[in-house]
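Researcher: Please generate the 3D structure of the following complex. Treat every line as part of one assembly.
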Amino acid sequence: MSNIRFQALQSVLTRIIPEVKTPGTKISDYYAANVFDKKKMREYVSKEAYQSLINSIDNGEPIARDVAEQVASAMKAWAMSKGVTHYTHWFQPLTGTTAEKHDAFFEPTADGAIEKFSGDALAQQEPDASSFPNGGIRNTFEARGYTAWDPSSPAFIMGPTLCIPTVFVSYTGEALDYKVPLLKALNALDKAAVEVCHYFDKSIEKVNASLGIEQEYFLVDLALFNARPDMYLTGRTLFGHMSAKNQQLEDHYFGSIPGRVFAFMQDFETEALLLGIPLKTRHNEVAPSQFECAPIYEEINLAIDHNQLLMDVMDRVARKHNFKVLLHEKPYAGVNGSGKHNNWSMITNTGKNLLSPGKTPKNNLMFLTFFANTIKAVHEHADLLRASIASVNNDHRLGANEAPPAIISIFLGSQLNEVLDEIETSRISKKSKDEALLWQNIPKIPQILKDNTDRNRTSPFAFTGNKFELRAVGSSANSASPMTILNLIVADQLTKFKLEVDKLIKKGEKKDVALLTIIKKYIKESKAIRFEGNGYSSEWETEAASRGLSNIKTTPKALDALVTEKTENLFEATVVFSKREAHARHEVLLEEYYKKLQIEARVMGELVNSLIIPAAVTYQSKLVENAKGLKDLGLDESTYSAQLDIIKKIAEHVNFIKSNADQMVEARKSANGIEDAREKSIAYDETVKSFFDPIRYHVDKLEQLVDDSLWPLPKFRELLFIK
Ligand code: ADP
Ligand code: MG
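Model: Done. Output below.
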């Protein structure tokens, strides 16, 4: 039994749990020790330089050269005191992962060598990076891309390297990453939200979006993972009959965490905490070997950097524990996939959460303003939000009755629903001189909301007491993609709201009446997007269609929303994407879509031909020999009828698999001939991917027939249960 599956199983049995060392017993003692945060900055740079940097962070003012110079040498001194030798600009290209290119501080001089890190090197770099996806923005002959320091996200140390969070733009100034559009959208939101806040409180100067990202993932033993080419090449299993026991007993969710997994969690959490990632929660998820971690929410740009960093840290630490972290949205057909819930709100510089219902009617009006505008924004641009979470991996989850459907809707909970209904049907007492009478129209919002009492897990966008939770984001996604869209559509909506309210005020309406009038109008207009029922049910699909909500199940079509005229106008109004950038991104996403399917199709073809069919045929030959032997002994056919039956079944499956795999190659060839990325993606979806399930079905049947000792790929029961 020398096949790689059995070698892998052998290694799993001999695993020893590595000892986990934490830097101290109190997390607060070592939290953020590897981050050059504001506190450390203050220790290392002059008061003036510090203040000037804070101004740049808060108000986006350009950073003076001498300030950059001071900060650079401070960073270097701090980093070197911690054994760091190199630095890198750390950025988020459209590949979805993070990128880095390390340079040494060291520089030779006439009489030896020095360690140097200049303000220029901190502020900007020109990575020779012509092979990042750019959607045609950057031709290889002008391959220059620039990374530029983002001072709002602090530098940190990973091993011997100082990492500086940066944006990534082309020579012509167009965004080539996820961070630039996010920062622009946040800026738009800040401006629009502050203006609206001034109806209620003139002292508010800044509004930040807040984000807490729950991260789901699977763990699998590294040896088993490496014995599955489909897993290490595509991130998911392309075949595999479901284990007899899977998640049906619901005994994994919140269960006690297995020892090996617990050690891994402690280890990566420690690394993450040292990097200032405020991880707070860990638990088992629904599927076997599925887990989740969640940090305390942070300012959104930082929360996203931290999530990107976290995925990287988890992957690296897992190796030490002989685990592989699967961040794929659907590693195993038949059990739940993984998502990344994005908990989002808006918080003022005065510390007020704008989505937290207030105690007084006046505060409630402020809450209702932001609440109704968010709902209206999502109603208006549901398709764009859907596009922002579209990926080939996420298509497996959306609409598969386990994750929020591809239909974007909003869950509010019965109490807030009633509140909105009440406002919608109430008459606003415009004439009244008596303030108290006006407030009668603003229903009281009960305080118990904060406990998230009624929750609906089937909704893609749910209000949970003092924040909205976008649940449709895929587990491997960069949250910047949906968060850029969410923040910019809310920004745009708030700007429109302000115009409408001001118009009424100009006409002589009282401010509160004007506010309430427009809120009421928005509640009416965006009613179709509100849904409290079961989002997984087929009735909802029918009802959503009758409400005019879209249900776009596949990525290539969902992405259309990025390049419609409506979206173009929105992007132009909020200055987040230029038309060229939006089209480039559309192109990049489509390319990613068909390329991933192309890889999956190739891996599938390779594996059926070189592993699956040979294993099946080997077993079949054994049976043939056996049947022949029995026949030679002069025995009746009835004594080997079972063998004959299996021989025939194997032949049927093998023939089906072979002919379908061959047809899939032809389908791929013809799809590859298509020039247009959208057409090509649709062809891949409709004519290539359509072979996956039938081929898989027959492979999985073979898995059940063929002698276990000959089966080459680790089985689901092994992947999901052995650790
Ligand atoms: P659940 O699994 O019940 O949704 P978790 O505790 O796992 O809850 O995650 C909730 C997430 O929401 C945490 O990351 C938390 O910090 C975050 N969160 C709480 N309040 C806010 C807020 N005002 N803005 C953004 N995120 C928030
Ligand atoms: Mg959760």
